């Protein structure tokens, strides 16, 4: 799959929540809770020419990871879920589709209409 964009998420369930929404090729990479700069660099090395998006939970762990990510990858784009949902995996796909569309990702229309 050829992609120009990559989304970094915390875990597999976040990835599974996001994947069906896209109407374009997208790579989603899981950090699995990684907080070190070297591990993040290792994860992102294959995507050095891609536009990088971080989509982390709004809980404490997600905020800590986002802080590390912003410090070491300041050129990255950040996507946010509402704190009421707490985690990307618990965020309704309709809301996720809107966030992704606002970030100029191609999303399946059914998710924007609440059918997905």
Explained architecture:
This protein has helices spanning 12-18, 37-44, 60-72, 93-102, 109-112; strands spanning 5-9, 27-30, 51-55, 77-79. It is α/β, with parallel strands linked by helices. The protein has one domain: Dna Topoisomerase Vi A Subunit, Chain: A, domain 2, CATH 3.40.1360.10. GO terms for molecular function: ribonuclease M5 activity. Residues 4-88 form the Toprim domain. This is Toprim domain-containing protein. InterPro entries: TOPRIM_dom.
Q: How is the topology of this model organized?
A:
Layout: E1 5-9, H1 12-18, E2 27-30, H2 37-44, E3 51-55, H3 60-72, E4 77-79, H4 93-102, H5 109-112
Parallel strand pairs: 1-2, 1-3, 3-4
Main sheet attributes: strand count, strand direction, barrel closure: 4 strands, parallel
Mean pLDDT: 89
The level of helicity is 25-40%
The CATH C-level class name? Alpha Beta
Would you list the SSEs in sequence order as H and E?
EHEHEHEHH
**Which of globular, elongated, flat, extended, rod-shaped describes the shape?**
globular
Which value, in Å, is the CA radius of gyration? 13 Å
- Find the structural class using helix and strand composition: alpha/beta
Q: Give the count of structural domains.
A: 1
Q: Roughly what fraction of the amino acids lie in strands?
A: 5-15%
**Low-confidence stretches at least 5 residues in length (pLDDT < 50)?**
none
CA-CA gap between termini: 24 Å
Q: How are the strands of the biggest sheet laid out side by side?
A: 2-1-3-4
Tally of extended strands? Answer: 4
Per the CATH scheme, the topology name is: Dna Topoisomerase Vi A Subunit, Chain: A, domain 2
Give the helix tally: 5
Name of the CATH architecture: 3-Layer(aba) Sandwich
């Amino acid at each position: 799959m050829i992609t120009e964009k990559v989304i970094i998420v915390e875990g597999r369930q976040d990835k599974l929540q996001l994947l069906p929404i896209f109407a374009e090729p997208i790579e989603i990479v899981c950090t699995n809770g990684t907080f070190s700069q070297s591990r993040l660099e290792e994860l992102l090395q294959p995507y050095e020419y891609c536009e990088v998006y971080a989509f982390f939970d709004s809980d404490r762990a997600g905020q800590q990871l986002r802080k590390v990510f912003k410090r070491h990858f300041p050129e990255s784009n950040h996507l946010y879920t509402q704190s009421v949902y707490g985690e990307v995996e618990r965020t309704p796909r309709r809301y996720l589709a809107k966030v992704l569309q606002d970030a100029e990702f191609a999303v399946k229309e059914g998710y924007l209409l609440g059918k997905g």
